[in-house]
Specification:
Blueprint lengths: L4 E2 L20 H14 L4 E3 L9 E5 L14 E12 L3 E6 L9 E6 L1 E7 L5 E7 H14 L10 H6 L1 H8 L9 E2 L2
Parallel strand pairs: 1-9
Antiparallel strand pairs: 2-3, 3-4, 4-7, 5-6, 7-8
Amino acid sequence: MILPVYLYGQPVLRKVAQDITPEYPKLKELIGNMFDTMYNANGIGLAAPQVGLSIRLFVIDLSPLAEDDDRFTDFKKVFINPQILESSDETEAIQEGCLSLPGINETVIRPVQIKIRYLDEDFVEHTEMYDDFFARCIQHEYDHIEGRVFIDKISAIRKQLIKSKLNNLLKGKTHCSYRVKPI
């Protein structure tokens, strides 16, 4: 089922999400719906707060980018109750966008490498290192479960330059090709 994507201004996007247990109701169905919602919106990652749920869950599938880099071919993952344990001092600035902020793309500085502990959809624990674009995508989605969005990481002057776009989102004056829940 395609779920509505919550847009910038929705309070759930600013809450620190809560851990979940294997007993979380209809978890497998929710994960499937999140992947369906993400694919419908042509996204590569989606966090539970973006579909209105303040829980520590996000999904990523980089396989649509495999034409550009074959390392992405089988990178489809579910992250439950993740914790970033380490981040590299080395950073990189790359442009990002977000399904919750349609039409806004900004350059964001993030660590190049991270170490993360998480549970998969079967609640098996993993501790893994990721770098480059893998690390960036994970950090972007991780920010959502920490109550942050990518524009929180841009300069004040850049925020001022996109203020009218943000105001339009807050006023519901945006067009999306996917189902959304504006403020």
